[in-house]
Design a protein that fits this description.
Blueprint (H helix, E strand, L loop, with lengths): L5 E3 L1 H6 L6 H17 L2 E2 L2 H14 L5 H11 L9 H14 L3 H12 L4 E3 L8 E2 L2 E4 L6 H7 L1
Parallel strand pairs: 1-2, 1-3, 3-5
Antiparallel strand pairs: 4-5
Helix pairs in contact: 3-4, 5-6
Length: 149
C-alpha cells in the first residue's frame, strides 16, 4: 500500500456533494473517504476558497456558520496559501502542459507539498509531470491506486 500524498482538486470535492450525477457523487465520496481514512489527502487554501465559492453559489439555503464549519473541517488536509515559489513552478507547468493558470497553481502546490498524485477530472488522466501523476477519480478506484502501489 502506498503512503504517498494525494492532492485533491476542487472538482472532486464538488462532485462529492453534487446530486446531478449520482454515480460521480458516489465515486468522489469513495475517494474522499478512503483518502481521509488513510491520511493521504492534501489540498490548499485555493481549493478551500474555490469550494467555498461553489457552496455559496449552489447551496444558498445553508447558513454561514454551517458552511464555515464544513470548510474548517477540511483544513486538516491543508490550508497553505499560495507562495512565490508556487507561482514560479506554475509557470513551468504552464510552459510544459499548457493548462489554465489556476490549474497550474494547483499542480505547483501539489508538487511543492510533496504529493505523488493529483486527483482531478479536469486534466489528462495518467499525465506525469514533476513526479506528480494526474488521476481521474472516475477512471480509477482508490483500491486500484493503493493496491497497485
Amino acid at each position: 500500500m502506498t503512503t504517498e500524498r494525494v492532492f485533491v482538486d476542487t472538482n472532486v470535492l464538488i462532485y462529492a456533494r453534487d446530486a446531478r450525477s449520482i454515480e460521480k457523487r458516489q465515486m468522489a465520496t469513495t475517494w474522499l473517504l478512503e483518502l481521509g481514512a488513510r491520511a493521504h489527502a492534501s489540498l490548499n487554501l485555493q481549493v478551500l476558497n474555490e469550494l467555498t465559492r461553489w457552496i455559496l453559489k449552489n447551496e444558498p439555503y445553508r447558513s454561514r456558520t454551517e458552511i464555515q464549519k464544513e470548510i474548517d473541517a477540511l483544513r486538516v488536509w491543508g490550508d497553505k496559501p499560495l507562495s512565490a515559489e508556487d507561482m514560479k513552478v506554475a509557470w513551468v507547468v504552464r510552459d510544459k502542459l499548457g493548462y489554465q493558470w489556476f490549474d497550474c497553481l494547483l499542480l505547483a502546490a501539489a508538487h511543492l507539498q510533496g504529493c505523488r498524485y493529483f486527483l482531478t477530472e479536469d486534466m489528462a488522466h495518467g499525465t506525469t509531470f514533476l513526479d506528480l501523476t494526474l488521476i481521474n477519480p472516475f477512471r480509477l478506484t482508490p483500491d486500484d491506486l493503493f493496491l497497485r502501489n
